Please model this.
Amino acid sequence: MNILSNSKFELIFDQRGAVQSFKMKEDLSAMNWVVDPAYLLEAGYEDRDKLFGEWTATVDGQTVCSAELDPQININGINRAAISYEANGLSIGLQYDLEDNQLRWKVKCVNRTDKKLTINGLHVWFSLAYIMFRDDDVIRNMEQSCAVFAHMGGDYSKFAAMRRSNKAPHLGIYGTKGRAAALGTLCRYENRFLEQVSPSLDGLLFHRLSLIEDGSSMPESAAVDWIYKDGYGSVELEAVQELEWEYVFAPVADQEDFYQRAREYGHPRWSYTPVLTKGGSFEAELELARGDKIQELLLITASHDGESISKESVMEHLIQEEGKPEVFILSLKREQPGEHKLELHLESGRKDVLVWNVLEPIDEILEKRAEWLCSHNYDPDGKAGRPHAFIPLSNQGESLGKLTFLLMKNKLTGAVEEQVEKAETSAVLDMKRHWFEHGDFAKPRILYGTFYRIFDLDYIAHVFYLLSCMPASMLKLNSPETYLQWAAEVMVVRLNPDCHQGEREKDETGLNGVFILYVHDLLKDLQDSNLHEWHRKLLHLWNKFGKRMEQGSRRYGGAITEHFYDNAGFGPTCETLLLLGKEDEAREYGELILANIGFSNDYRAQNPDRWWEALSYMIHSLWGGMVASSARTAYEHFGDPRYLEAAYRSTMAIFNCYDWNVVSTPRRLQPGEAASTFSVAAPNLNMPALSRNRFGQSVFREASDPLFAALFANVAGDDWDMGEELVAYLLGFGTTAYVYKDLKGRLYCVNGYLTQDSDSWIITSYAAYPQRFVMLDEKLELRANRGESLRQARLANGELTRIM
Model:
């Protein structure tokens, strides 16, 4: 066994020179920050060739793998190790140096021949401990696993490995020499979803760092990805020429510390608006490393068809902050929707990249979406198999989000009769009949071989509840009171384990779900409508559910769903505990949310961390939106702006699944069209066509995995589990803009922007249907009157007022 050690770190190599353990000695959890071969053996995954430090290369058209070579391993004392390989005229060396409070990692590639070599790819396995352990003791998943958030493009790649408990130390990894072309992932998993067990899914991601990548790992993405395309290409290595890359690993306390450490290693520091709407203001603060000077700042955009790229200098908009020669402020009004890329060119010859987005006004996106659903997805004649269903057909309740979105939008705006009618007809003539035997709510239909999903009932009750909120004059089949009672009946079955025979179903009544979006409103409306018996039953079950959540919080039981560790569990559980007034318990889950939401120089990588549907790090429309909503709710209770900022950046990343102006992905959208998932990683090594691409479950119809093939055999569309996240948006950022002060007294606006007007501030909201402005730290709130749109407000003299 080969070991390096100093006062801060211990690094253990296997007999082949791959890193099998990397630990921080001051870490009380003794977490191994790389994939442990002992766990691979325990879980049955045969991937020792993907341990940290193994590599593959393509040289003159031939692929060579380190796993097929015999390395030379040199250990120099207790602080340095060098592993070297020789193959096809190429020498690959990896060096590890322990230096005080950091690990320095170098990768060197040398042409040992007397002729030129062409390298099409050099990929090093960068296998950090991104693991969902097959363990229902959730503490292991919290303390021994991390989410990995990448900053790619230019010369300043860096990676934040955030422990899932959000307890420091975390790990920051900073590029200090050489340019990385891509960060890909490969997933291994076990899926027992169709068995009568829960939890049923675990897995892990192996990350792969591409130091050279010509695009062949992800040809579809590389062909259209104008944002990162200039980083792809082969390298001609002359005789005896060498290339070198260097990364520094260091412990970090939190997100802020991650960026402060980055500046110490020479990286520029950006704070920026990740997404705004057309006509809004992009705001950024840039802090250079000491001694750096700006040569040029370019704003780059693509044409609507993606065929042409425009570049413009925005140096004239860059203002140096008084008294701070290394700090600059950038403010840009943008009328052009679409992705935007900032390229910062420094006099040193290095460049940095920032990727942000300008959306159409979100009310236009939502209106187009509603029109699309009614004209393209509603199937009155049942040509796809079920009359009055919204396609693509699915047995999973997530597909009913289309109905909840239509109804919620119509609740907030002037109702469109056709949209309400189609949603109601689908609910009564398809949903009720398909999910229940003979429409009897006490008899959920077994749609999954031997069981039914409790979670499906969450969506069904939500549809009925929103129907009860519609004007009676717009309903054709039943009264609002009938739908209100139906919602209560379904929720009673959903929360009561005594209503079910199967053990899986009984257990899952204790798990959280999307019903947190409406359960309080449902209880209030039941009481107001004199449905006292149903109110009594549901309130009793809700209080019992909350008590179980409170008791389970000591073991973090709410973090488990069908998955062994899941943001679909701990996000809603945090919100449930807040609804029940259990703030101390909610804070424990809130930390899991903060560790889960990404931060990056690319707005698309700022989503809640989920991997299952893409088998890679991804934006998942439904649970991305739900976890973001829980973060916003946490802010309104705790007042901690970390939750607000995380909630906003992750909410707005979700709109990448609806944005028809995005042209950097192979899958493009028509106005109103949508795709349920965006695979962030590039390449996605399980399914290369998904690399930085939008997709839906239809891509799995021909999958080799028999479970995928069974689940999605009849899926014909890409917007399978969408809509509920738009309801969550409409209940939060869809109506509300926030203002807060940081610790230095500086004023910030989230979900809008600020302009100064003599002795006051004008706040302009990005909300789809603006009705509310909040300044929580000053206990200020301004609400619209019924039927009023409140796009702007004035902040002056400690008051929020309307602009007359």
